[in-house]
Amino acid sequence: MDCWRESEGKRVHDPLFYHFPTTDNNNTDDDKDDDDKESESDSDCDCVAVEGPIIVGAGPSGLAAAACLKEKGIPSLILERSDCIASLWQRKTYDRLRLHLPKQFCQLPLMPFPCGLPAYPTKQQFVAYLESYAARFAIRPAFGVAVADASFDGQFWRVRAHCCRPAAGKKTREYVGRWLVVATGENAEPVVPEIAGIGEFSGEVLHTSAYRSGEAYRRKRVLVVGCGNSGMEVCLDLCNHNAQPSVVVRDTVHVLPREMLGSSTFGLSMWLLKWLPMRAVDRVLLLVARLMLGDTARLGLPRPRLGPLELKSLSGKTPVLDVGTLAKIRSGDIKVFPAIRRFTEHGAEFVDGRSEDFDAVVLATGYRSNVPSWLMEREMFSEKDGLPKKPFPNGWKGQHGLYAVGFTKRGLLGTSMDAARIADDIEQCWKVQKASQLVMSFSLPVINVSASNITTTTTTSSCDHDHIR
Ligand SMILES: Cc1cc2nc3c(=O)[nH]c(=O)nc-3n(C[C@H](O)[C@H](O)[C@H](O)COP(=O)(O)OP(=O)(O)OC[C@H]3O[C@@H](n4cnc5c(N)ncnc54)[C@H](O)[C@@H]3O)c2cc1C
């Protein structure tokens, strides 16, 4: 029995669906009776065919992929667990956040930032840009749809998702399509490490994804665990709100000025890399950083043995771009501690023997990918870190129509590259599929879906995903 539903069609880009039997608002009473009977017997079967690619995640990467596909006339469906686009930016970041990198390295394909934005747009400006990006390409994700698992059945990708909208009737739905684009991001879940004694600490403990502003911490002693870009910026925000922050620097870290020699450090690095080998560029960056910031090791922030760019390319570890935190460390407004030995009821003991009382702890301990928790295919992504196994720039394509966008450890620049490649690749297969449908114009492709299997009565495509490059 067919069990296709068009209800989701109102939420997705047109024209998403094949011409399947649907329930619509123009039904006759007889039709309605039939539908009622059908929906009773179909309660265990809610299956939706998606004509174009299924994209999981409506962050910048999912939007970029959908836009590049749309530009080629290919519809897609984005499934997003949250209730908005760019949920990382809208729901999980602090108020004072600006793009860490200059805007020209952060714009998505096919649409530049509007004129007049500052070099480092605020998160509100970035979100507004993404909203108009989605509007421009008529991208309407299905919100409140959390993908629970996705697997390839030999012919199609079957994506099972739980509906998290309170008003939604059915809780689980299966989306079936030829292409699956993973766009759930490198930062899908907060990393909360087990630190000895953390359960004994009587103060507030929160991850940076729940931190909004230092306003709530005025005059409070706050320990920030982690010294990446977020940790350093949260310390500065706490200082600006008259809190007393301390930062844990467990490891080595590269701190670079955000601008050097009249240019953004990131832009300068990109330019120098055109002419010089990476190690030479690293030496230039470290020399200028030393002249501008002094010896950071003396402030408790020792540098790694490898240079900032080499370290980034080998381990993905991003250098901190300083926006004023170092000056606050130098002035003593922010204290620096080494690794934590254990938490106590009122504070923490550190490996150098010091101990201190705190009112709150902010874990700036980063994020991780969640792909292994829902993607059943084990070839493309590493189960260890949830990132593509193939190194950059080859991690965007898997087998059988599986793709990844935004997993390059190169931020939004990497996203743009992936999205364009994926759209080019799918376009070739799409054209073959469309051509074969034209040839069979008198027998439209009909896909019969029963509760647990899907069969094509007409072959819609002879395209072999893996032979298209
Ligand atoms: C504080 C901070 C500042 C940053 N600044 C910059 C910067 O200046 N420049 C830069 O290039 N990069 C920056 N980044 C990196 C940034 O994460 C990416 O550039 C960008 O957000 C990545 O977009 P994305 O779409 O790949 O992932 P995300 O933005 O994380 O979007 C992924 C989406 O997938 C959804 N999702 C996850 N799992 C599921 C599921 N199972 N089912 C359905 N939906 C799911 C999520 O809800 C989310 O909406 C920053 C990151 C952080 C944390």
From TrEMBL:
<feature type="region of interest" description="Disordered">
    <location>
        <begin position="15"/>
        <end position="44"/>
    </location>
</feature>
<dbReference type="InterPro" id="IPR050982">
    <property type="entry name" value="Auxin_biosynth/cation_transpt"/>
</dbReference>
<dbReference type="GO" id="GO:0050661">
    <property type="term" value="F:NADP binding"/>
</dbReference>
<dbReference type="Pfam" id="PF00743">
    <property type="entry name" value="FMO-like"/>
</dbReference>
<dbReference type="GO" id="GO:0050660">
    <property type="term" value="F:flavin adenine dinucleotide binding"/>
</dbReference>
<protein>
    <recommendedName>
        <fullName>Flavin-containing monooxygenase</fullName>
        <ecNumber>1.-.-.-</ecNumber>
    </recommendedName>
</protein>
<dbReference type="InterPro" id="IPR020946">
    <property type="entry name" value="Flavin_mOase-like"/>
</dbReference>
<dbReference type="GO" id="GO:0103075">
    <property type="term" value="F:indole-3-pyruvate monooxygenase activity"/>
</dbReference>
<comment type="similarity">
    <text>Belongs to the FMO family.</text>
</comment>
<keyword id="KW-0285">Flavoprotein</keyword>
<keyword id="KW-0560">Oxidoreductase</keyword>
<dbReference type="GO" id="GO:0009851">
    <property type="term" value="P:auxin biosynthetic process"/>
</dbReference>
<keyword id="KW-0274">FAD</keyword>
<keyword id="KW-0503">Monooxygenase</keyword>
<keyword id="KW-0521">NADP</keyword>
<dbReference type="InterPro" id="IPR036188">
    <property type="entry name" value="FAD/NAD-bd_sf"/>
</dbReference>
<feature type="compositionally biased region" description="Acidic residues">
    <location>
        <begin position="27"/>
        <end position="44"/>
    </location>
</feature>
<dbReference type="GO" id="GO:0004499">
    <property type="term" value="F:N,N-dimethylaniline monooxygenase activity"/>
</dbReference>
